């Protein structure tokens, strides 16, 4: 939908609402909040959910981040990777392959030459195994960068993992574009056979930094 078409539709919706004589409906927001788990339990729950979604999980400390990222990239035979412009270059100090910094000027189809992508993350939910990417954050990049390459290595700080969905959503900036990741991309064909990599990366490697 083009910008003009979207504006037309929204304007018609607003006009229709303005002519309505029905009172506004109050939406209850009494979500259960404030849940918390100790680090060890939160890590175990988050890992269990990620593995259940067929993601691959590695843990590391802040000091071994570069080593573990390099191991993940080598394990999948990556030679050329893309990174968002604000990714910490120290994270790639242990990897000897080619690194290309992404830019909005690069057409999405050209990202297909990349073997993988490495990004940070904004927040995660242990209960659902969901990782949230902030598209406005310089170390997480635009949506296309994490959808086109076949491998996504995503770095998650354990301190950013929240127990439940309300706690995780409360950490987001609603005005920023947000991508939610729950395992590698997957769908089912007409015979309900699972097919991976159709709408995004076939492989998701989650590197959890336990002391950050």
Automatic annotation (TrEMBL):
This is LUD domain-containing protein. It comes from Streptomyces mooreae. Residues 119-208 form the LUD domain. It comes from the Bacteria. InterPro entries: FTHF_cligase-like_sf, LUD_dom, NagB/RpiA_transferase-like.
